Model the fold of this input.
Amino acid sequence: MRRGFTLIELLVAIILFSLIAAFLYGGIDQVRLMRLFYDEKGKEFKHHERIRSLLYRDLAQAEKMSIIDGDSDHSIVSLQPDRHSLYGIALPNVVWLVVRKNNTLIRLESAENIQIPLDPTKFYGVHSDIVATGCTTFRVYESSAGRFGSLTCGNDEIMVEAPR
Done:
């Protein structure tokens, strides 16, 4: 009798190997999709933490805060003088506002007092940063306990509580 595999044994082995490979491919594909999903969530979280940190530092380190209610959903917040500068200004004046045309949250910083609407002759000394887009609400409140900020961009809510 000859030693070796029969054709049926080889076919059964190939079929079993094919089934195992198909299940492994499905599992690996699911891991790839989960990694992509969590990478995107990680980027969103990092962006939200950047916004939260920036707003917190501005609210916590400002000597005086003025809130102008533009409407029920948006505030214009003026912080004077602030000890937190992104541009190396000693005691900057900072304004947070939402541009209604495209719901963009903007942070303005200048060495001089910033008045809204901006005077075109003073554009040179004002630094502006787009902080977030698609903002449906931006509200800031002040109480004896501290300063509170709330920002809604898309489906995400960012809350900030800064002590006085």
About this structure: The longest strand covers residues 62-69. DSSP finds one helix and eight strands in the chain. Residues 7-61 form the longest helix (55 residues).
